[in-house]
Amino acid sequence: MTAEPQDVTQLLLAWSAGDQAAFDQLLPLVNDELRRLARAYMRGERRGHSLQTSALVNEAYLRLVDQQQVQWQNRAHFFGIAAQLMRRILIDYARKHQYAKRGGGAVRVSLDEAAAVTEARAAEVLAVDEALDKLAAMDARKGRLVELRFFGGLTEEETAEVLRVSVPTVQREWRAAKAWLHRLLTAGESDDV
Hints:
74% helix, globular
């Protein structure tokens, strides 16, 4: 089911105003896009990841319901928040895995379950998250831009709309942020953005 961006925006505004029926109408309209976002995130994960795309979407739905205090601006803003939530879900999942690998909360699992999440992949996800947090600490807008473009899959135009900047600014800062993150992740050094 495809909806016009203005339809989604109208429902978001109604939901922000307290109309629960608007949220119920919104979910079918955004479901396909949320699944696309989740698939994009999961493509970055290793094969056999024990968190499935549907589970990621469902967890995002649960967290979106708790976002009632957000004053939704438009469709792009909604998907930016959804992308941020999905990233947080995957980071929380990786952190729990690392905690378990260190013996915390020792629980018996089968060999198949233990093989489902590799320690190296969890460490990689956490390294990317840490690098993105460093970037955001140095330049919050570039950190948000990476989150929206890379993790959220927003277009340059949608990202510009959410950040309230021009498309050329998005393009310029996207190039700079990618270069900085690449240097940090490959060389372990950080330079000013």
